[in-house]
Design a protein that fits this description.
By secondary structure, this protein is α+β, with helices and mostly antiparallel strands. It is built from 10 helices and 9 strands. Strand 8 and strand 9 form a beta hairpin. GO terms for molecular function: oxidoreductase activity.
């Protein structure tokens, strides 16, 4: 029997835990206390989101004709500070963009790239979609769960080995298609690719991360930490031109990636031509 969620009373009382029908709801970590419109969460809001972050938030909002369009990058900005989207982060975005917290929460809980629990220094995403699973993705994920777990208990989805945010901490998750089927099974560390993985290679990789090493990805930018990557996803890149070029211009393709196009060129294969005069279907009047 699950414990019913409690409705918080107005005021700055601690948030209450909420439960779903089948147990604890990991997406909705807590219910915020009721606040008046436009009122910041509490004094703690000013601590993580200081003047520099507020300036970046205003810069993001100014990039769009409608400020609400800046919500996605602003959520990444929040994650670059706290390593996840907290209730304070939701309130911060709502305040900056003149949105309700319900609107921000709806977006933050819809996309899996926004984490509702604190992440480690490194986020390891293992592809377990159909092709990678058939090639060994499920076995890789299971092996990492067992390897990073404690006291015989495997580490769960979006759970962290170590203290979240601390050096050497690793969060693992299973992911649905990382768009690298030609190089599967694959995993990502902070969204950088490690191709053609095996359970043994994956264990070696996470062990290196926990030691503080940063093994070179198979392609793409050099490995960084989760929060630094989130700042780039928010749209803020290194000011040093050389560092910027290294981050954005790393090699992103492999021989396997291009082989299909090369084979088509060698054999003269082309896509069927489409006529520019295809009539539009008639629309029935209502």
């Amino acid at each position: 029997m699950t414990t019913p969620s409690e409705t918080p009373r107005p005021g700055k009382e601690p948030a209450k835990q909420t439960f779903a029908a089948a147990g604890e709801d990991v997406d909705v970590v807590a219910i915020s206390p009721v606040r008046e419109e436009g009122m910041l969460a509490d004094d703690a809001l000013a601590d993580p989101f200081g003047p520099d972050i507020e300036a970046k938030a205003k810069e993001l909002a100014a990039r769009y004709p409608q400020s609400r369009s800046a919500l996605l990058p602003m959520l990444h900005l929040v994650q670059s500070v706290q390593g996840y989207v907290s209730q304070e982060g939701i309130a911060f975005c709502a305040h900056q963009l003149d949105l309700s917290e319900a609107e921000v929460s709806a977006v933050a809980t819809f996309y899996t790239m926004y984490k509702r629990k604190p992440c480690g220094e490194h986020l390891v995403s293992v592809c377990t979609n159909t092709l990678c699973a058939a090639l060994g993705g499920d076995a890789i994920y299971k092996r990492l769960q067992e390897h990073l777990g404690e006291d015989g208990k495997p580490l769960g989805h979006e759970e962290t080995a170590g203290t979240p945010g601390e050096p050497g901490s690793v969060t693992i998750e299973h992911a649905e298609c990382l768009a690298a089927c030609d190089l599967g099974p694959v995993l990502q560390v902070n969204y950088e690719y490690y191709d053609n993985q095996t359970p043994e290679k994956a264990v070696e990789l996470v062990d290196a991360l926990r030691r503080g090493d940063k093994p070179a990805p198979s392609r793409g930018a050099p490995l960084s930490d989760f929060r630094s990557v989130e700042l780039q996803l928010a749209g803020f890149f290194p000011e040093d031109d050389e560092a910027f070029r290294i981050d954005v211009d790393g090699p992103s393709q492999a021989v396997e990636t291009l082989r299909g196009a090369q084979l088509a060129a060698e054999r003269g294969w082309t896509a069927p031509a489409m006529s520019d005069d295809v009539p539009l279907p008639e629309v029935e009047a209502k």
